[in-house]
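2024-03-11 09:14:02 DEBUG pipeline.ingest accepted 1 chain
2024-03-11 09:14:02 DEBUG pipeline.ingest length=665
2024-03-11 09:14:03 DEBUG pipeline.predict start
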Amino acid sequence: MADALPLRLPTLPGCGSLEALGQVTLPMLTALLDQVPARVVALDHEERLVYANDEFFRFTGLAPAQVLGQHIARIIGSAAYGAYQPLKDQLRRGESVGWEGWIELAARGRRYMREHLIPTGPPEDPLRSLVIISLDWTALQQRDAELSAKLEELETTQALKASIVDHALAALVSTDEHGLVVEFNPAAEAMFGIRREQALGQLVAALIIPERYRQAHNEGMARLAGGGAARVIGRRIEMSALRADGTEFPIEMVLWRTSVAGRAYFTASMADLTERRNAQAEIERQREALRQSEKLTAMGSLLAGVAHELNNPLAIVMGRAALLEEKLHGHALAGDALRIHEAAERCGRIVRTFLNMARQRPTERSMVALNEMVRAAVELMHYSLRSHGIEVQLALTPELPQVHADPDQIGQLVLNLLVNAQQAMAASEGRTRSLSISSGLEDRRLDRAQRIWLRVQDSGRGVPTELQEKIFAPFFTTKADGAGTGMGLSVSRSIAREHGGSLVLESSSDSGASFRLSLPVSGLAEVVTAPTPLEALDQGAEARVLVVDDEAEIADLMRAFLEGAGFEVATAESGAVALALLQEAQFDLIVSDLRMPDMDGTALWRAVSELSPTLARRMVFVTGDTLSATARSFLDKTRCPSLDKPFTKPELLAAVRRQLEGDKA
């Protein structure tokens, strides 16, 4: 480049003859320009590069032979050259122009430049020559941009952290190494009843720690400051805390340590355990109530067995005393027989009274609008359904007739169905949750009372086929521990049956389960017409009765009662023997015990139903199992009359005659 300078510099217009500068001045000027950290170039009137210092060649990576004498547009590129065109008007007027900004250079790409353009031609033609001084500020601009981005990121992070701290549900309290509060978030304000402004700078021990724990807290802080082991940092611990009003309450706390600029800070995240403790206490009370309920259920089962065992001999005593009283009529010992009979009947009344108290009886009934009960239950569960993302669809038929029912029990039934559906859908992840509730009026037939129905259909996973027969059993549940007792559907079906209705699992698939409740408007079970008398039975003739009981004394007693009233009686000690007798002889009525070994009354009824459906409708059952849900369910299903042991002769005869006389009863 030093060889090129003498050739080019003399052609710079307006600069005079460089030869006059002398041999000393020219090297000095060249050396000076080569040491300048800026790029210095000179253009002639045709915008050709006639001079460039060393910094220019270092920046572009070009050699002097490549650029000297070349048009500037070829060197810097058309895009950069075009960016300079708006400045020419000022330059033509002889004005120097300074600018900075991003520019696209052919050799270096996108750069941030700060430049001064100085026209050096004569006044009549300032652009005859032009000197350009450039500084590349790309790195500085990038650092500034990175710094700005980091500052913005820091501000965003700080804002985000502040937002998290301010909106955290947990109370966050930070202290320095001396135990002075440096942060106290809004949740802490709400929990302790202390304003942040009041808490900052205060000793945390005096602020929220009960007095009896302060010494241990101070000792722990001193141990940490002395480099001792951290016993509580990072651990979940439960302890008591102090509110501004002086009351103590339980909290769960996690403590951690943070170092900032060489100083230690401690932050505690605290959750109020008051509601959790209260909920746990309530759960314990409910568990205890459930244990008591289960104990009562077990006692009820035991009582049913005891009652059965007690009622059998008591029935024998009562019956035999009555027969003895008849036989001793007019005899001096008749009074003794009467007193035995009266004492036995008194025992029977005591047992019956006790069993009646143990049974569940319907409470007060009134006219109930089923649709209103449904709307009330949906409204009651509105928050729970909404919070679980369950969409409720109501399709209730308007102006349904009211039902004569217990409103509390029907309300409990409907609520049980909704809770059951909500829990089923809550356990079904990844699917749309919808609950469809509809009601209507059943088609009324001539032989059936008016009935209404309610359908509750969910979009859960349904009930597996192997469990569909078990879901109505007491204490059976598929839910996790603590999510249910398994009594909801069992109680609901019991309520439906008490009102003469039914509750069934109508359908179940992977798309959900549908339960259907049917209730008679009267609130009573349908009255079934008494069975038509057997064709072989002539009015006034003796009826043939088969007595089935595994207790020989009871069977003999019933035989004596019936034969004394003119009936022809045969006895069987088991259901199997009874079936054998039915194959050989025809009977007009069967009186059977319900609980028997081998084949019980239920199995006998099924067998008789297949052998002679008409005779199956002419069965009377006697039982001492008065509390058994299975027995009650069977009797409700078959609608066969039953007698509770101990029974009297008139009660037995009345039940038998009602079955035989049918509509004439």
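2024-03-11 09:14:41 DEBUG pipeline.report The domain at 168-272 is CATH 3.30.450.20 (Beta-Lactamase).
2024-03-11 09:14:41 DEBUG pipeline.predict end
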